[in-house]
Amino acid sequence: MSRYLLIFLTIFAFNSPTFAADSLEQLVRNTAELKLNLFGDELLQPEQAFEFSANVKNGNTLFVSWEIAPNYYLYREKIKLELLNSDGVKLGDYTIPNGLPKHDEAFGDVEVLSEDLNFNVPLWREDHGAQTVKLRAYFQGCAERGVCYPPMTKDVMLDLPVAQQLEALPEIAPVQSQNISVTMTILLIFSIIVLILSAIIAIRFKK
After folding, report:
1. Which of 62, 45, 55 is closest to 141 using CA atoms?
2. What is the dihedral of CA 74, 76, 78, 83, to 10 degrees?
3. Span 76-126, pLDDT tens digits
4. What region, left, alpha or beta, does residue 61 occupy, with left being phi > 0 and alpha being psi -120 to 50 degrees?
5. Quick check: 163 and 59 in contact, CB under 8 A?
6. Which of 16, 84, 113, 126 could form a disulfide linkage to 88, CB 3.0–4.6 angstroms apart?
7. Cβ burial, residue 70 (10 Å; 0-12/13-18/19+)
């Protein structure tokens, strides 16, 4: 429809007796504005609509993040993380922030996440030495206008530092416990002796 409108405006302008250079300039300006209105609102590429990143927070924790473009959203239920080529390192239980409820024609009742999404991911490490692992993120999202993207994956290489190990309990703890037990035993024996002596004294006074 816009093509026919453009042809009509062009024919009218050139056949008008008042045609001048400024009319042609105005026509070009109107054409440019029309093009922007038609094509300026194109869909973003997946990596632009949902920009994923991950980094190492410490030796036992990862930090993952999605920068979600305005008017786009991710399905909470479609987010999954996985470690590849990571012997001795596993992902711990992580919690994805809650989203807004939405009834989706394809997936039914779901939760959707917009704007920025980020959370910590704990690591279970049998190998405490420094190493490089590959984190793979699975996710899927849509544009608010109703256009959805196919499932996406993004890999990130991460350099893990040496993991911190839990310190052993000090050896003095059992000794302290043993000393307390001995003290309680002495007090108990002393109490029994006092009771016996009290009973003997009471019997003598009665005589």
Report:
1. 45
2. 110
3. 999 999 999 888 999 999 999 999 999 988 889 999 999 899 999 999 999
4. beta
5. yes
6. 126
7. exposed
